[in-house]
Amino acid sequence: MKNIGFLSFGHWSDAPGSQARSASDVLHQSIDLAVAAEELGADGAYFRVHHFARQLGSPFPLLAAIGAKTSRIEVGTGVIDMRYENPLYMSEDAGAADLIADGRLQLGISRGSPEQVIDGYKYFGYAPADGETDADMARRHTDVFLKVLEGEGFAQPNPRPMFPNPPGLLRVEPHSAGLRERIWWGAGSRATAEWTARQGMNLMSSTLLTEDTGVPFHELQAEQIQRFRDEWTQQDFDWEPRVSVSRSIFPLLDDMDRAYFGGRGDDRDQVGNLEGGTARFGRSYAAEPDGLIEQLREDSAIAAADTLLLTIPNQLGVDYNAHVIEGILTHVAPALGWR
Questions:
Q1: Which residues contact residue 182 at a Cβ distance below 8 angstroms, ignoring those fewer than 6 apart?
Q2: What pLDDT does residue 275 have?
Q3: Which of 34, 83, 283, 286 is least enclosed, having the fewest CB within 10 Å?
Q4: What share of the chain is helix, strand, coil (3-state, %, to 5)?
């Protein structure tokens, strides 16, 4: 059994064929797709966050809106770039969105991916301290965020406040109990997965790893997952973590599916350069259901994860993406024991 959700990058453009031509289109369609996915029996609606791009950059209003219009589906991110975040203000936004969703928020955070602009976090008012890298700064922001989510008071109250205070030090409000255990780190390497376990976060592994050992992507990712779980057992946490992987999976059920995704030629791993280092990118899957099932049986990382996020072509519109999700839930998932 697996949790199966979708992951949208939230692109919009006026390119031919795009049904998401503005930010307004993407936001409304994201809500509509989450509602449709819940009705189809999917388990999660996740969104990528990019700044300075024609993509979703401010996730909490969207997550809150989805939380208000759904009742069961998880709502989350994959991932928020912590270089850009004020961790206290973020904890307020996250707490409010989680309360609106009745505890269904699943927040993926990370150091972030290559940016649209140079050092974009500086425009948001953040810069690494002396001797710090931007990745160090992201982890520092994360450490503060996680501590605040624990809900302990830390701020000295004003002796003459506008409104009466409860006794003791004050915490950031609103606080949502349990959210701390629903934070995920987007890890791009085996070492970062081990660090994630030491911080007490769930593991979110994407369709690329920032290292290459020469083995197929799914095998390297499965090793990353095992290292995460091995490290977790060495810690003193009293709860079980979750692990997600992301995949592009398209059952070819009709002529439209075959026109969009048949014969694309991206059914093998790719090795490339990312920010000056070697990276391995996972393959996409597109085939008739019987062939797709056999291909997916061989993916050891999907087998190792408890959560599968389906990366979707959001610009093809709500109806088509709902069709893709339904195809996987109906024609693929049962045969693989995911349902």
A1: 98, 105, 106, 107, 202
A2: 64
A3: 283
A4: 40, 20, 40
In DSSP terms, 202 is beta-bridged to 184
Q: What is the pLDDT of residues 298-326, one digit of tens each?
A: 999 999 999 999 999 999 999 999 999 99
Other CB atoms within 10 A of residue 195 CB: 16
Alpha helix segments (H runs only) across 8-86: 23-40, 59-69
Per the listing, tokens 């996409």 go with 284
Range of the domain at 232: 3-336
Do residues 316 and 19 lie in contact, with contact meaning Cβ atoms separated by under 8 Å? yes
User: Of 55, 50, 59, whose CA–CA distance to 115 is shortest?
Assistant: 50
Q: What is the mean pLDDT of residues 279-296?
A: 91
**Could you count the other beta carbons within 10 Å of the beta carbon of residue 74?**
23
Under the banding of pLDDT at 50, 70 and 90, the label for residue 212 is: confident
Phi, psi of 287 (to 5 degrees): -165, 170
26 by Cβ neighbours in 10 Å (0-12 / 13-18 / 19+) ranks as buried
Three-point CA angle 327, 331, 332, nearest 5°: 100
Candidates 203, 219, 236; CA nearest to 303 is: 219
How many C-beta neighbours within 10 Å does residue 19 have? Answer: 16
Report whether 331 contacts 288 (CB < 8 A). no
Read off the CATH number of the domain in which 55 is found.
3.20.20.30
Determine the pLDDT at residue 300.
97
Alpha-carbon span 56 to 323, nearest angstrom:
23
pLDDT class for 133, splitting at 50, 70, 90? very high
**List of residues 6+ apart from 55 with CB closer than 8 A:** 9, 10, 11, 12, 26, 48, 49
- Asked whether the beta carbons of 42 and 327 are under 8 A apart, the reply is no
- Listed in sequence order, the residues at least 6 apart from 64 whose beta carbon sits closer than 8 Å to its beta carbon are 96, 97, 100, 101
Total number of domains in the chain: 1
